[in-house]
Amino acid sequence: MSDKKNWPLWEVFVRSKNGLEHRHFGSLHAADAEMALENARDVYTRRNEGVSIWVVESKHITASNPEHNGELFEPAQDKVYRHPTFYDLPDEVKHM
Amino acid sequence: MKNENLYNYILGIADNNLILGQRLGELCGHGPTLETDIACTNISLDLLGQVRSFYQYAAKIAGDGRKEDDIAMLRKERDYLNVLLVEQPNTDFGYTIARQFLFDVYHFLMLTELEKSQDLTLSAIATKSLKEVSYHKRFSSDWIKRLGDGTSESHDRIQMAINDLWTYTDELFHQTEADKVMVAEGIGVDVTKLKDDYYNQVGNILEEATLEIPERKYFQKGGKQGIHTEHLGYLLAELQYMQRAYPNMEW
Amino acid sequence: MSEEQIKNLEEQFEARILRDDKIEPKDWMPEKYRQTHIRQISQHAHSEIVGMLPEGNWITRAPSLRRKVALLAKVQDEGGHGLYLYSAAETLGISRDEMFDQLHTGKAKYSSIFNYPALTWADMGAIGWLVDGAAIINQVALCGTSYGPYARAMVRICKEESFHQRQGYEIMLKLANGAPEQKDMAQDALNRFWWPSLMMFGPKDDESPHTAQSMKWKLKRKTNDDLRQQFIDQTVPQADILGLTIPDPDLKWNEAKQGYDFGEIDWDEFWQVVKGHGPCNKERMKARVNAWENGAWVRDAAMAYADKKSELKNKQAV
């Protein structure tokens, strides 16, 4: 094994077509951002899967900790009034 | 053959793609990283896709019942018209990239002109190919810079590859008899006119890559006349093996 | 963490898997789950990239340009699939370099099928048809596995691989309907690849130590023997369409079990190949190690270049 630094890991986000958001497609290794873009093009859009690519070095992503899932996400569970089905309307009112 | 000049002209373009595509195909599974491996295979696939369009057209021009594979695989050594540059072996990744780069810059310039051809088929193939080759050029230029301005080892290796392959660059701008006729008919590209642009572009990238531009007064040539380096024979032996060992079969 | 707490977490963890919850990289997981997944996913990745070699041998000799581009694209896909899988394993805290190192030093295994030589063009057909056919059966089952990144990689891989088996079968069809020489070539390839393909599903259930645990974690959805049976039942009629003969005199339809009975697999050969005594183990490893070692200066150069450029950028920013 070479004792030099290895190519870092990058996360790849691809927009499949205009109008859609970029979606996480996977990861790859590259020495720099330029190469990460090229590699992403070669690895993840071989079958016409994309019109735009974002790459970001994995270490720059800050992720929430699943151990905090309780405090982060559960409080939203009982806020049913944020959903349309919470409100009672007569059937005659259509499309609201 | 009624239009032998056009036929030979097409082969002069297409054989470059075939031989370089074949060379890159040898590398599949052996790249320095998976990502680079996949990228080089993409280039090979682009070149071989282009070559199929060219040979299908050449087969139509020949009109003697031969198909694309007959033209690709059943000619003799002296009948292949590719330039010497593309048949040079994959000595290491430096040679692979140097060969690619020295070809890509030419390929892009040539196709840009071919797009203006009076021959609509050639013009259409050129249009489609240009997008692919534009990416090839970007890919190989980027790697020239990385290797040239990377470590001292990579600098030396890519410099050596460039120096060794430089001798095959001048041939890219030689005109064959078929070329001259095709240029006169508004079909072919006058490659002699691409030379200055080529060496400027190549020089700029090499400079950016902190590499020396080789000084050479004597260049190798012959590919366009079917006089190749010894490397081509081995390449053809593999390329043609199945068609030669099992003649007249469908695959 | 106390033993009590760990036990509690483990119970919750197993309950999540039972509910078909996916496990994601940063979730707590038992160490054994992590290690088992690293082992299986990296083995799977190694199989993809070692699997590039036998077919890669034939790229330069493909008999037509159409076959050449199809084979190139297929072998390239295998590289891509290796990459997806290495990435999935990396989410568990192992680097690709470490995994390569395990492969190159023989610590990690890969599918033994790739230690058999690809001798003729028909082997490209047989590998696509049988080897990819067997792999797909395994992989479809894994699309629902419990570890999210692995399951997602499998979904992508299955989608991309759908052309692989067809590519192989089409080669076989052409040969089987071609000249006598071609048909012989196809039969010969089937003869050589049939039994190794059956071995791809691993040892019999009663000799497969990981099955129970793997079933629980959905690393396996069916047992080795069930998958093998499924493969045989779907492949025999395909051989009939080709007019080729499966090289097993004991193969016959069993009406009661609605499946084929088949002959005894040579398990001694299986274990010998696993242990490194297959026809091509050494060549395959040599090719991988060479690619990696010969590429070291290239990888280093790219890193050095990237460092220089980012230093320059930082300086300019100041």
TrEMBL record, chain A:
<dbReference type="InterPro" id="IPR009359">
    <property type="entry name" value="PaaB"/>
</dbReference>
<dbReference type="Pfam" id="PF06243">
    <property type="entry name" value="PaaB"/>
</dbReference>
<dbReference type="InterPro" id="IPR038693">
    <property type="entry name" value="PaaB_sf"/>
</dbReference>
<protein>
    <submittedName>
        <fullName>1,2-phenylacetyl-CoA epoxidase subunit B</fullName>
    </submittedName>
</protein>
UniProtKB/TrEMBL annotation, chain B:
<protein>
    <submittedName>
        <fullName>Phenylacetate-CoA oxygenase subunit PaaI</fullName>
    </submittedName>
</protein>
<dbReference type="InterPro" id="IPR012347">
    <property type="entry name" value="Ferritin-like"/>
</dbReference>
<dbReference type="GO" id="GO:0005829">
    <property type="term" value="C:cytosol"/>
</dbReference>
<dbReference type="Pfam" id="PF05138">
    <property type="entry name" value="PaaA_PaaC"/>
</dbReference>
<dbReference type="GO" id="GO:0010124">
    <property type="term" value="P:phenylacetate catabolic process"/>
</dbReference>
<dbReference type="InterPro" id="IPR052703">
    <property type="entry name" value="Aromatic_CoA_ox/epox"/>
</dbReference>
<dbReference type="InterPro" id="IPR009078">
    <property type="entry name" value="Ferritin-like_SF"/>
</dbReference>
<dbReference type="InterPro" id="IPR011882">
    <property type="entry name" value="PaaC"/>
</dbReference>
<dbReference type="InterPro" id="IPR007814">
    <property type="entry name" value="PaaA_PaaC"/>
</dbReference>
From TrEMBL, chain C:
<dbReference type="GO" id="GO:0005829">
    <property type="term" value="C:cytosol"/>
</dbReference>
<dbReference type="InterPro" id="IPR007814">
    <property type="entry name" value="PaaA_PaaC"/>
</dbReference>
<dbReference type="InterPro" id="IPR012347">
    <property type="entry name" value="Ferritin-like"/>
</dbReference>
<protein>
    <submittedName>
        <fullName>1,2-phenylacetyl-CoA epoxidase subunit A</fullName>
    </submittedName>
</protein>
<dbReference type="GO" id="GO:0010124">
    <property type="term" value="P:phenylacetate catabolic process"/>
</dbReference>
<dbReference type="InterPro" id="IPR011881">
    <property type="entry name" value="PaaA"/>
</dbReference>
<dbReference type="GO" id="GO:0097266">
    <property type="term" value="F:phenylacetyl-CoA 1,2-epoxidase activity"/>
</dbReference>
<dbReference type="InterPro" id="IPR052703">
    <property type="entry name" value="Aromatic_CoA_ox/epox"/>
</dbReference>
<dbReference type="InterPro" id="IPR009078">
    <property type="entry name" value="Ferritin-like_SF"/>
</dbReference>
<dbReference type="Pfam" id="PF05138">
    <property type="entry name" value="PaaA_PaaC"/>
</dbReference>
